[in-house]
Specification:
By secondary structure, the protein is an alpha+beta fold. It has 13 helices and seven strands. It has helices spanning 4-26, 29-44, 54-75, 104-114, 116-124, 127-138, 143-150, 154-171, 174-196, 199-205, 230-239, 241-244, 289-294; strands at 206-214, 225-228, 247-252, 255-260, 268-274, 280-286, 297-301. Strand 4 (255-260) and strand 5 (268-274) form a beta hairpin.
Length: 302
């Protein structure tokens, strides 16, 4: 496998598998693609003549890359003023430092194949638990190999997977799946009403005391803001209807929200808090590039 073309061909044969592993570990197609690319770079810098089983070697490397990314997330885990509405200004160039999104269709297919409830539950696990569960339970990697990735004993790795398995079984219940379906229904109705400029429908979807907060990057004034009450928030949403047409539903850190990414460049994310009455009780608008980079997003289409 010394020839670069042969190596590239061999790598491509494993790309889909590597992306699937990385996606289930990271919950983001964009991050998964980054992990796969990093794995390719590491392969090109390795002595391929010493690799006996390329598939196993690549899986181990992409798992280690993902583990580092998960740990980095853990390490990086405004007072509002003003009275204007974020997103009301016409869509402009992408905010500097934001990242392009993966193909929304691919993201939606992957999300559906994994299951929204499982993706959310996996976010609750520690990086080590997540890796042990995904590699062993979802991809049948032997515990000895998983232990090598984690730098732990086989017995310790078994315990991690067992603990993760219990949490997954306990949390990925029908109730959690139903809750996500409820969130998706409400968020979808909000997006449709905003696109159609339907003020009455928006008011009906909002809690009377709904609060909208937005960081400074989201507002035309350049100041973080807060809006209170269904009337103010719904009228603001009407002003932003032009952007609603280019927005889509997404899983945002485990709950259903909306993202605005014209041309595939992420600019704004709306996170919703939906109460038991199926009304939106709070909206968090994020446009600051640093905050956007820390979000875990899975576009759902719609």
């Amino acid at each position: 496998m010394a020839d670069s073309d042969v190596l590239a061909t061999a790598f491509e044969a494993h790309r889909d598998h590597l992306r699937a592993v990385a996606y289930r570990l990271l919950g983001s197609l964009t991050d998964a693609e980054d992990a796969v690319q990093d794995t390719w770079l590491r392969l090109t810098g390795a002595d391929s003549s010493e690799i006996d089983n390329l598939g196993a070697w690549l899986t181990t490397v992409v798992a280690r890359v993902c583990l580092n990314m998960l740990r980095s997330r853990r390490r990086h885990q405004e007072d509002p003023v003003g009275d204007d509405w974020p997103l009301a200004a016409p869509a402009g160039p992408a905010v500097g430092g934001t990242r392009p999104l993966g193909d929304p269709e691919d993201e939606a297919v992957l999300a559906d194949s994994v299951g929204l409830a499982l993706l959310v539950v996996l976010e609750m696990l520690s990086p080590a638990e997540r890796l042990a569960f995904v590699l062993h339970d979802l991809f049948a990697m032997p515990f000895a190999e998983v232990a090598e990735v984690l730098g732990r004993s086989v017995e310790s790795t078994r315990q991690l997977a067992s603990r993760a398995r219990r949490r997954v079984r306990g949390a990925s219940s029908e109730d959690r799946a139903a809750d996500l379906a409820r969130q998706r229904e409400v968020a979808s109705a909000f997006l449709a009403a905003a696109r159609g400029g339907d003020l009455a429908a928006l008011v009906a979807l909002l809690d009377t005391d709904v609060t909208l907060t937005a960081d400074a990057a989201a507002a035309p004034s350049g100041r973080s803001i807060v809006l209170q009450g269904a009337d103010a928030v719904s009228r603001g949403a009407i002003l932003a209807s032009s952007r609603a047409g280019e927005s889509e539903l997404a899983l945002v850190d485990g709950t259903v929200g909306v993202l605005f990414a014209p041309g595939g460049e992420l600019q704004v994310v709306l996170g919703f808090t939906i109460n038991s009455d199926r009304r939106i009780a709070a909206i968090d608008v994020v446009a600051d590039p640093d905050r956007l980079r820390r979000l875990r997003l899975t576009p759902l289409g719609g």
